[in-house]
Write a structure and sequence with these properties.
Blueprint: E1 2-8, H1 14-27, E2 32-38, H2 46-58, E3 63-73, H3 76-88, E4 93-98, H4 106-111, E5 114-117, H5 125-144
Length: 150
């Protein structure tokens, strides 16, 4: 299985970038991963422009997870169970999308196979990236029975 993280904009803050890279390194023990960034759009139709770029970067990803404030709110253990289901289905690639400041276009929302909310709270995009990758790493440690999760 491979994870593709597709998001709008770069992680500019050095501290968040370091955490992102650290959890990607840890996650690489379980799954191949790549990050694909699309440019921030500006002005009228921002979400639609970014949405077109996001959809173009998905290629033919068989399974798309959209981080969405209205998505399913699940625990770390429930996320690990979802990952196991995806593995058992034989999914070769799972793409995770984090939209821009104006959200995502209807086309991106429709393309999502699974909508995930990280919390009832709101996070910056840079925080959400780190939290997502850390939670995926945590899910694999739960699956494998490693002592990371508490």
């Amino acid at each position: 299985m491979k994870f593709k993280f597709v998001w709008v904009g770069k992680t500019r803050n050095a501290d968040w970038k370091a955490l992102q890279d650290e959890y990607l390194r840890r996650l690489s023990h379980f799954v191949k991963s790549e990050i694909v960034e699309v440019r921030d759009a500006q002005g009228v139709g921002q979400a639609e422009l970014e949405g077109n770029d996001l959809l173009a970067k998905l290629n033919h990803s068989p399974f798309v997870v959209l981080l969405d404030v209205n998505g399913r709110k699940i625990s770390s253990h429930e996320l690990s169970a979802e990952l196991e289901k995806w593995q058992n289905r034989g999914l070769r690639e799972v793409a995770f999308i984090i939209g821009g400041a104006k959200g995502v276009s209807p086309g991106v929302a429709e393309r999502a196979d699974f909508k995930l909310s990280l919390s009832f709270l709101t996070f910056t995009h840079e925080m959400a990236r780190v939290i997502l990758i850390e939670q995926l790493y945590r899910a694999f440690t739960i699956i494998k029975g490693f002592p990371y999760q508490k």
